[in-house]
Amino acid sequence: MTTVTTPTPTSELIAEPWASEQTITCRDDRVGLRAVIAIDDTTLGPGFGGVRYRAYPSTEAAAREAQRLAAAMTLKHALAELPYGGAKSVVMLEGAAPAPGSTERRALFARFGEMIARTAGTYVPGVDMGTLLEDMQTIRDDGGARAFCDEVSPSPFTARGVHAAMRAAAVHHHGAAGLSGLHVVVQGVGSVGAEVARLAHADGARLTVADVDTARAEELARELGGATVAADAAPFHDADVFSPCAVARVVTRDTLERFPARIIAGAANDTLDEPGCAEALRAAGITYVPDFVANAGGVVQVHGGVAGWSEQETLAAIDRIGERVTGLLETGEAQGITPVAAALQRASAALGREIVA
Questions:
Q1: Under 8 Å CB-to-CB from 307, ≥6 apart: which residues?
Q2: Which of 10, 116, 238, 303 has its CA 20 to 30 A from that of 46?
Q3: Whether residue 1 has pLDDT greater than 80
């Protein structure tokens, strides 16, 4: 028996109707699908961005997140010099997520794939929070839509890019020794954060790690000869470098004065609570690497696979994130602006329109 629910009024579906080139809502009661696709900008190519699968308090909140993350993907691709626009989608989760490989989950993502196929290639999905490689395979094989990240996890490549960004900031701030001898705090040690910690450790950094899963943090700390700290205390723990690799909006106007680290570089999206935090960080003498620059390694790897790059070519392209960070920090210092503002200047030039924070 099919359960029919009352549709949410259109006025509640779109947080900001004109924030993106297209914002598309998708619904199918037969499989329990409620999703939003936001295509932010296609100046440089089709919109590429992951599919998030999580609970949201409202459809408005889901639409707002899709649009916000899609805009960040536009910047990420422009700064990484990739031939894609920015896009993102969210699938709303109600209750427990269907188990991987289950008929229910496959039906959900197959139907969503059919919805994506209607965009005629304007939106290309990939793995994101809550989705799996096999979900992308279902979107592709059963839904008939083009999908990225369907064979290789992007996490190690995202971590490599974050490490390159962190090391470049350390060289800029501390000199040629880079991360060697510095104290790095990594907040969130999932597949990306744990690898960031390992790479920093290999550079001679001293590590403190934090995660809501304390057992996972403790295991990594033992591996690296480091220490642990509570996840919510990580931003304020004494350190030279703070690397947020979990929750968004860690830096707020109310808390940034409590940050002891002089460098912030991590994988988490939306590190800053609001745009004015970038200038406040600069005034406080904290070097902030824009998250959409630091965490681009995964999308670079995906494009490398599509373009047929060798492994060496792909890794070299990811490592160039460090060169971009150096350039942004030098531009910021020369012009008396934040690294975020310097990044937006470059993105504006690539897109042919002014982008402001």
A1: none
A2: 10
A3: no
State residue 150's pLDDT score: 60
Distance CA 149, CA 132 (A): 9
Only one residue has tokens 């304020």, namely 236
Q: List the structure tokens of 110.
A: 């197959």
The β-bridge partners of 250 are none
Q: Which of 88, 87, 97 minimizes the C-alpha distance to 32?
A: 97
Which residues have CB under 8 Å from 347's CB, separation 6+?
74, 75, 78, 79, 355
Under 8 Å CB-to-CB from 20, ≥6 apart: which residues? 38, 39, 40, 41, 67, 70, 71
> Could you tell me what percent of the chain has a pLDDT over 70?
95
Per-residue three-class SS string for 199-260: HHHHCCCEEEEECCCHHHHHHHHHHHCCEECCHHHHHHCCCCEEEECCCCCCECCCCHHHCC
Residues with a known catalytic role: 88
9 compared with 257, residue with greater pLDDT: 257
In this structure, is the dihedral angle defined by the CA atoms of residues 174, 179, 185 and 187, taken in order, positive or negative? positive
For 138-163, how does the pLDDT look when each residue is reduced to its tens digit (9 = 90+)? 999 999 999 987 677 889 999 999 99
Tokens of 271: 């590190």
pLDDT class for 9, splitting at 50, 70, 90? very low
Q: What's the pTM value of the predicted model, to 2 decimals?
A: 0.91
Strand order in the sheet with 263-264: 227-228, 206-210, 183-187, 241-244, 263-264, 287-288
Could you give the CA distance from residue 288 to residue 278 in angstroms, rounded to a whole number?
7
Helices (H), the chain: 10-13, 59-79, 103-117, 133-141, 155-174, 191-202, 214-224, 276-283, 291-294, 297-307, 311-335, 339-351
The tokens describing 177, both together, are 């020794």
Which residue has 């150096």 as its token pair?
326
For residue 72, give the 3-state DSSP assignment.
helix
> Rounded to an integer, what distance in angstroms lies between the CA atom of residue 342 and that of residue 290?
10
Q: What is the strand order of the sheet 123-127 is part of? A: 22-28, 33-41, 85-92, 47-54, 123-127
